[in-house]
Amino acid sequence: MSAPELLAAYFTISGDVYPFGSNEVSPFLFEHRVEAAARAGYKGIGLVHPDLMATKDRLGYAEMNRIMAANGIKHIEFEFLAGWYKSGAERRASDVMRSELFEAAEALNARAVKVAPGLDETEAQADVPRMVDCFGELAIEAAQYGTALTLEIMPFSNVRSIDMARRIVEGAGQANGGLLIDIWHLARSGINYSDIAQIDPRYIGGVELNDADRYPIQPLWLDTIHRRRLPGEGALDVQAFVKAVQATGFKGPWGVEILSESHRRMPLDEMAHRSFDTSAAQFA
């Protein structure tokens, strides 16, 4: 079986930066990342908000679109909107980011905006009715800009189970408001791949591939941003995950998200080619 279209998530080819670090803007120019992704075989890329804004200021959206089209990049997604159900200063900051992400989504025809769960809460602390209402409102607004939302399940958050994730997206009931299923987060949450079948296929908005060591380092947050592995080079059964997702009818594009202190220090083309080749091999 040939590989489906793959999308290089931002940190897969961003170079030596990582989530919530002192600087998330890639040392590699946008056009160079797009070209490297295309040479490797990718059909999509991801951008984080700080890098997106820096690139917009330098190039403008029209030039970004031209660069992607010239290199056969058909898909783009953004991350990572947090605080969307909060109040006060946290919500005000989130609303500013939301406005900028949605404006960019319309200009660049982004397939989705990744949405963060509450990273400072457990599921027991989650205000589920509020999250349902706010996610629904957010999805309605996103639709006005022609884009979708993908809420990510994470083991160190208030959405760390398929049951909780379903309560939010099904409760919101918006066609463009779905879930992001990352193999690392499912594995570290103790979720069996067979449980993916519990999710209504309509709400599977995105899927991400990577791999992990058998035992995580602690705290778990450091494991996710520094110790992920290329697909097939860790202890996870990536092909079983792929088959479980395919059984839902998901067609892609499939994201590839490699957050690794060793991977991010490779030359740009090596990051792109190694991540693409190891991911594509999981569909053989």
Automatic annotation (TrEMBL):
Keyword Isomerase: yes
Matches recorded under InterPro entries: IolE/XylAMocC-like, Xyl_isomerase-like_sf, Xyl_isomerase-like_TIM-brl
Xylose isomerase-like TIM barrel domain ranges (all copies): 34-262
Keywords from the named record: Isomerase
ATP-binding in keyword set: no
GO molecular function: isomerase activity
Cleaved signal peptide residues: none
Domain of life, per lineage: Bacteria
PANTHER family the UniProt entry points to: BLL3656 PROTEIN, HYDROXYPYRUVATE ISOMERASE
Official protein name in the record: Sugar phosphate isomerase/epimerase
